[in-house]
Specification:
The radius of gyration is 23 Å and the shape is globular. It has three domains: 5-30 and 196-322, Immunoglobulin-like, CATH 2.60.40.1930; 38-110; 131-195. Strands 1, 2, 7, 8, 10 and 11 form a six-stranded antiparallel β-sheet that branches. The chain contains seven helices and twelve strands. The chain is of the alpha+beta class.
Length: 325
């Protein structure tokens, strides 16, 4: 099947993604490979002050330690569990990062001419996108959000005077959670309609300056799409600190280094639900290689975005793009 590649002009990218002349465009609402903007031993040290007090509070709530009852035991346990989960997440994330970097260094030393063996656990056949995992992740986010609001509801409901402000604030943020819940329901609908997806590699790995050929398959109803846009991107994540003083926060920002697009019509997609849809791009020579082991990482990806009545198909696939040795 013949596809037409359409590169975006720089001015159009600035309008869509932000950034002024000379600045890299920013991809908003883009899924990140970095789970948080802190890594390694810094993450471990940052997580311990949350983990240890949280364990003490949960133990007190379970009557493992003496405590003065200023609040219901279940509420104390819930608050303590927030600290335990946050601390455990940061500690485990940091230790995994340290172990992964050590494994990366060993593998690179053993096979210096094949960095893709150390960079990511690639499968030579291709890479899958799990719509189920994406839906489950959103469900957990909604559940944690409402669990976090529970103490504020309790304070605002049981206390008087200015404490009622907590109730109003909790209600306001609960309404935001309803919107996220609606997005989750939409993800459930998309999962039931399209299922999971798989991008098969025609060669492994891909090299800068060479053709990139792959085949895309969705498990269900792929041929009902009115249009499918396939986008090849090179993305660089950075940890960006914004704000001043007590309002400072560090977040993961995705910068767009390169982009190319291919569009498929409804006629071209006919029968694609039972077969693979061929995709072809030309990789540029003057762009970074995939470095998923870095913190933060740089990587190549393909995004598939389809339009249909009432639903939207969307999937992301990482690509093994490296420099020719």
């Amino acid at each position: 099947m013949t596809t037409t590649l359409n590169s975006k002009m720089e001015s159009m990218r600035q309008q869509m993604f932000g950034g002024g002349p000379g600045e890299l465009p920013i991809l908003t609402n883009h899924p990140t490979q970095s789970v948080t903007a802190i890594d390694g031993w810094k993450s471990v040290l940052f997580g311990l002050p949350f983990l240890i007090p949280g364990i003490v509070v949960v133990a007190s709530a379970l009557r493992g330690l003496p405590t003065r009852n200023h609040a219901p035991m279940w509420l104390a346990g819930l608050l303590g569990s927030f600290f335990v989960l946050a601390g455990a997440f940061l500690v485990i994330h940091g230790l995994r990062g340290v172990a992964r970097r050590a494994a990366y260094n060993r593998q690179v030393a053993a096979d210096p001419g094949q960095p893709w063996l150390a960079d990511y656990p690639w499968q030579r056949q291709g890479i899958a996108f799990s719509a189920f995992n994406a839906m489950l992740s959103r469900l957990l986010q909604v559940a944690v959000w409402y669990a976090f609001l529970t103490p504020f509801f309790w304070i605002g409901w049981t206390q008087h005077g200015l404490a009622r402000v907590f109730l109003l604030g909790a209600v306001f943020f609960a309404l935001i959670g309803i919107y996220w819940g609606m997005l989750w329901l939409r993800m459930v609908g998309n999962l039931l309609r399209y299922g999971n997806s798989f991008l098969a590699f025609d060669s492994f790995p891909y090299f800068l300056g060479s053709p990139l050929q792959a085949r895309l398959r969705a498990t269900k109803h792929f041929d009902v799409l009115e249009e499918l846009t396939v986008t090849l991107r090179c993305v660089q994540e950075k940890y960006v600190t914004r704000g001043t003083g007590d309002n400072q926060r560090t977040e993961v920002v995705c910068y767009l280094l390169y982009e190319d697009m291919a569009t498929f019509t409804r006629e071209q997609l006919a029968g694609a639900s039972s077969s693979y849809l061929p995709i072809s791009f030309r990789l540029p020579e003057n762009q970074p290689v995939t470095r998923l082991a870095d913190t933060p990482p740089t990587y190549w990806e393909i995004e598939a975005l389809g339009k249909a009545k009432g639903t939207k198909y969307q999937a992301y696939f990482l690509l093994p793009v490296y420099g020719a040795s």
